[in-house]
Amino acid sequence: MTRAAPPRIDLTGEWSLRMNGPQGLVHMTLRIAQNGDALSGTAEGPMGTAELTGGIDDESFSFSLAIDSGPGFVMMFTGRFHRQAEGDRLAGTMRAGEIAAEFSAERVERT
Questions:
Q1: How far apart are the C-alpha atoms of 57 and 51, rounded to whole Å?
Q2: Which is it for the CA torsion 104, 76, 109, 24, positive or negative?
Q3: 13-109 belongs to which homologous superfamily?
Q4: Mapping DSSP to helix (H, G, I), strand (E, B) and coil, where does residue 31 land?
């Protein structure tokens, strides 16, 4: 029996996320915990705090936030991890219903 290799990336920590939404620039703080390839945590932003759940596969990730601003409003984030000399970054696309926006995030603190 072979065991799955551990993920190549670790997203654990605090991230500062920016995206251009329909109402302009949105800032969020992500606090991510990683257990194997599973992600959990919280996101804080202009619409309050939401639970974050998701996963990673190689250097790609996806997670969702259920925002309490209407029935069934879920934000889905997908993207890739980038390790750079000046710091770790995430980049990708957020989708919520018919809305789509590009986002980027920088690691603030590794916990």
A1: 20
A2: positive
A3: Quinohemoprotein amine dehydrogenase alpha subunit, domain 2 (2.40.128.120)
A4: strand
